[in-house]
Structures are given as C-alpha cells and as structure tokens.
Write a structure and sequence with these properties.
Blueprint: H1 6-9, H2 13-34, H3 36-44, H4 66-71, E1 87-91, E2 99-103, H5 105-121, E3 129-132, H6 140-152, E4 155-157, H7 164-174, E5 178-181, H8 183-196, E6 207-210, H9 217-227, E7 230-237, E8 242-248, E9 255-257, E10 262-267, E11 281-287, E12 298-304, E13 306-307, E14 319-320, E15 331-333, E16 336-338, H10 340-348, E17 353-364, E18 367-376, H11 378-381, H12 385-403, E19 408-412, E20 427-429
Parallel strand pairs: 3-4, 3-5, 5-6, 6-7, 17-20, 18-19
Antiparallel strand pairs: 1-2, 7-8, 8-9, 9-14, 10-11, 11-12, 13-14, 15-16, 17-18
Helix pairs in contact: 2-3, 5-6, 7-8, 8-9, 10-12
Length: 433
Amino acid sequence: MQIWEPTYECMPREELEQLQLERLQATLNRVYKNVTCYRNKFNEIGLVPEDVRSLADLQKLPFTSKEDLRLNYPYGMFAVPLREVVRIHSSSGTTGKPTVVGYTRHDIRTWSNLVARFMTAAGVTHDDVVQIAFGYGLFTGAFGLHYGAEAIGASVIPMSAGNTEKQIMIMQDYRTTVLVCTPSYAITIADKMEKMGVDPKSLSLKVGLFGAEPWSEAMRKEIESRLFISATDNYGLSEIIGPGVAGDCEEKCGMHIFEDAFLPEIIDPETGAVLPPGSVGELVLTTLTKEAFPMIRYRTRDITSLDYAPCACGRTLVRMRKTMGRSDDMLIIKGVNVFPSQIEEVLFAIEGCEPHYQLVVDRQGAMDVLEVRIEVTENIFFDEMKRQRAFLEMVEKRIDSVLGVGATVKLVEPNSIPRHEGKADRVIDKRRV
C-alpha cells in the first residue's frame, strides 16, 4: 500500500497537534494583519491571535460563512497582494455572486501535493492513464485532480465533461486506467456503455475517483459492479482549496482529512456548539497552510462525522464519513430532516429501481408533501397494475421506515429523468417558488 507523504500522513497524534497549533498561530497572525474582515471580527470579540495558546482555544474564534465571502467579493478575503496570486478560481454562484478564491505559486504546489496524497491512497501510480471528465474552467475539480495526477507522474487526459460517447471511445483507444468525474456521471457512462454494447471488462479501467456531490455506499457498489473498478470518494470545496481536503484509502472506511493542512471540527448546525468526536454534525474547517486565501472556521454546511480510531492502512489522520448531504440542502419535511442520500440508499437496495431518481417537495395547504420519482426497469413499468401497485407500496413503506416521514412514489419509465454530466440535480423544491 503506497503512502505519498508518510511523514505527515502517519505522524503520531501528539506531534501532529503541535504542528497544527504552530501553523494555526501563524495563520491567525497573517489574517489579522492582512484581511480586514478577520481583523474586524477578532476586534469585535476583543481577541488577538496571541490569545490562541492551544487547539482548544479554536472555539473562541468566530466562524466564517459564505456570506462573509459574498460581502468581500471579489478580493476582500485575500491575504496577499494580487500580484502574488497566480491563479483565480470561483465556485458556482447559484445564489448571487460566485465565491472567488486565489492561489499563490506555493498554494498551487501544496494543492498538487494534497491531491497526490488521496490519489495515491486510492491506488493511482505513475504507470496510470488518468481521464479527467470534470469540466475545466473556474470550477476547481478538474485542475486539482490534473495537478495531483501530474505530481504522481501519471499520464493525464484532460478530457473535460460531457460528450459521453467520445469519453468511452477515448477510454477504449487510450487505454484509460483511472476515471475522474462525479459519481452520477459514472452511472451515466455505465448506462451509455450498455446502450453502445461496450463491455466494461474490455477496458483497462481499474480505479475511479469520484467527488463533487454526496453519494451513498449503495451507489459505490453499483458503480463498482457495473464498471468493474475500485470506486473511491474524495472531498474538497473551492473555499478551502478545491479537491484535496480528504480522500479514501484502499480500506474505504472513511476519508482521511489531511490534518497537517486543515483543522476539522464538527458543530451543531443550529447552535454552533462544537460536538464531541463521533457526533454527526456540520463540518467546519480551518486552513493551516494557505497563503492567498486562508479560512478560519469555515462553515462547509456539509453533514458528516469524524472517526479518530486507527486505520488499517497505517495513516494516523482522522477519517470523515461520506457526507450525508448539506445542512442547507437538507430538506425539512413535516419537521423531519431528510437528506437525498438516505432515499438513495433505500432505492439502490431495491431490485428493479434504476439509479436515477428525483425528489419533488411541495406544499399542499399548510402541509409539506414529498414525491419520489424513480426510474424503474421496463418490465416493472409495463407490468400489470396489481403488481406495479404492490411494488409501489413496498418502496413507500421502506422510505417511510428509513426517513420517518411518508412519501408518494411515482414510477417513471427508463431514461425519462434528465441525465447530468456534472453534479446531479436531485431535488426540486417547489415550496420556495
């Protein structure tokens, strides 16, 4: 089992915490001096960087939210002059202006190295041919994986997103061994292969690195069984660095967070209180090595939990479980918190359900209603009414038992739900309209 940087990835916890404290203090000094937003936030609560003498003092610091980034658009959160910034990326501005992030030359090197860590942990080596089917552009995903693969010495095919038939042709002709894309696009590729009569076993694929959206263990099994690869998860977000915050090792029992570069906490999304290890809550991250765009206690809105138990792979880094969705795209239906990934787990376990679904939330009078649209195999869709009814009731019962809230299930024919080449848009919430 390969480890890219054993010095940091296998560091004893005591040494790691000492390193984190030193890097945290240096980061706080930098933001207090160079970022007006942080200086104002610290001054408001009467805190100076010197007040942080232990990692426990991290809780004294204020959170950073997406709103802070919007208020300081475009360059207000940068901690270095623009002439030192060699790259500018931004995250999609689904609500208002996008979030702008910058990288110094050193940040780019750090980024490449962190991505190389999780790619190596997934089993990628310098002998591999890596096909990147993320969209290139302002989105950080494609560039992060591109740099990481090049750092390892692998051959990179910067294919970008879309044009599924061409993706498959290139996999065949260029003998791609590693696929990089969203998990939902991996399913789209598998569907297209079936239609084209391409046997995935005839390809050279061995590993998939899938990220940029939450996905379930059931979806992992689905991808692995259809593409005959090892499907690994990785985690990152533009505001923190892009991909390279955490990634699966070959044990696949949680993604190792690179704690020498990022300090993780789990908080209660409602109260902001820090929760004890093992609790499920919102992930908060503080960057420890970023020059251009350091973030202090950034609220990711991603729901997960942290496991500090040793991993069989030999890495001492904490593991985060697959994100269960987001505290802000978490649907609250009849007072119950519902994550799309919970429904996905149910559907993947039912024979006859296709891996394509959509959740439609609406309000009838004062009552929230949830409709789950599921693609089913043709023989179920065209089955006699009585058997179709029994199948519907069984799915509704399973969803109800997992979520604790009832849903109406609507069966739709194969290929009727739109396919996505990037992140899948699983939820239509009509209540906000």
